[in-house]
Amino acid sequence: MNQNAENLIFHKVLVIDDNETDRYIADFSMHRYKFAEEVVLQDSGRKALEYLLSLENATDELPEFIFLDIRMPMMDGFEFLEEYEKLPEVVKKTCVIMMLSTSLNPADHKRAESNPYVKKFLTKPLDKDKMDELKQEFLRG
Amino acid sequence: MDTAIVPFLNDKGKPYQYLYIQVDITAKKETEEAIKAANENLKISVDRLNEAQKIGNLGSWLLDMKTNKALRTPEFYKIFESSMAEFPTTVEGHLVFYHPEDRKKIYRTYLKALKDHQPYQCEARLVMKDGTIKNVIGNGRCVVDEDGELIRMYGTIQDITERKKTELELERSVDELKKSNLELDKFVYSVSHDLRVPLSSMLGLIDITTEQTPIDVVHFHLGMIKTNIKKLDGFIADILDYSRNSRTEIRKEKINFKDLLDDITQNLKFMGADKREVDIKINISDKAPFHSDKTRLSFILNNLVSNAIRYQNTENPHPIVDIMIDTTESEIGIAVKDNGIGIKKELQPKIFDMFYRVSSESVGSGLGLYIVQEAVNKLNGIIAVESEVGEGSTFTIKIPNNN
Description:
The structure holds 2 protein chains of 2 kinds.
Chain A: H1 2-7, E1 10-16, H2 20-32, E2 36-42, H3 45-54, E3 65-68, H4 77-84, H5 89-94, E4 96-101, H6 106-113, E5 118-123, H7 128-139
Parallel strand pairs in A: 1-2, 1-3, 3-4, 4-5
Chain B: E1 2-9, E2 15-23, H1 26-55, E3 58-64, E4 70-72, H2 74-80, H3 100-116, E5 120-127, E6 133-144, E7 150-159, H4 161-207, H5 215-247, E8 252-254, H6 257-268, E9 279-286, E10 291-293, H7 294-310, E11 320-327, E12 331-338, H8 368-378, E13 382-388, E14 392-400
Parallel strand pairs in B: 9-11
Antiparallel strand pairs in B: 1-2, 3-4, 3-7, 5-6, 6-7, 8-10, 11-12, 12-14, 13-14
Helix pairs in contact in B: 4-5, 5-8, 6-7, 7-8
């Protein structure tokens, strides 16, 4: 099974995180462990929304996965989700959102789980095992 | 014995006979004494009743429904700050003593008792002649005759202002306690989260660094780990500052602003972007000696000055921080002015919020300005900000001079 996972790869992944180190780690490890061919990094929810909206007419370019941090200044992960809901249907149909946070707050977990656009709640850091599991779950399906 | 001698007179007015009456009055004497004793007992009882009512701030009353005559105890009048002569004769008339908002309630309670003859209790406010408010609680009972006719009402009125005050205070402190518990919960989650962020980043960096990683990349990762350690260290220092500010007593001493600012600026001069030197101008006008808490003042100034340096405008070739101190007998004015990046108008009210960071470029914990504001509050001062994006920010503080 793991052998299969090695050969599977996502085309494009979007990482939304205000933390520079964590963006770097995501980018580095996603390339290293061949999780995605292209990793797009955005340091704020606002910029990520603009990016997604810009691809409305180039749906092939839309990311399959969005890794979303919760605690960010200006617009936090949940505020991003509120705005995300207003995006065109085609964007929401293409993208799968994962919460990727350091938060141990049960309220955050609950809130994330009850959001229709959030598929999973992952705890940082995103390591090889977690990425392999995601591949198994979403690429083999 | 009681003796009486009655003379009988003749035509000339001379007594010709005497009637001698001797009566045994033992019984009468006893009765008189018993009445006297009973009166004394009654007086003692009434005194005791009045004393008890005085102690309990409780007056009582009785209303004869047939004669409409009322009996009220001294404490009753005292509560209403009225007298027997002054007090209105009708129930309707005495409503004027009550708070306008409570009059309806009182009257309704009375009318209901007239109808259903049930005991009642009612809390209300009295408004005294000088405008002060008293909280009172009234209790009433009805007495009916064998035909079910209401013949008498009686009851008590108690001044519960003190109790009410205590109750309100208690309620307030319970509310405050609930609030601070909730805040503590939030605080613990926020703090644990912010402590874990750099830790998980470092863990991630270590995870992606293996034997195969080129040495220059390893060094790059080590540099990032160092940055995260500094961030963690800074955050822990902020938490300590927060705790110190909220727990430590205020210690007043004479402040030497020159020494204080020299210390602060010496340490901060090169902390800005690219480590370029910032022109720090200090302008002290101490017209009066200033006494305050040195630790807190130092913390406040240190934060404002380091923010001014940290958020300098890299496009501006000549970054300046202007520190102005102006002390008078009554207060001190502090202004820290920079020509840095500035803060957007709509974000200005939020910058003093706990854990608030303006953008992902903000490097701090989001605690600095929060603790600054808390510290200024502790010193009974006020803090304000004026800022224009691209132009710079000015933080001004006013603190009373405690000499």
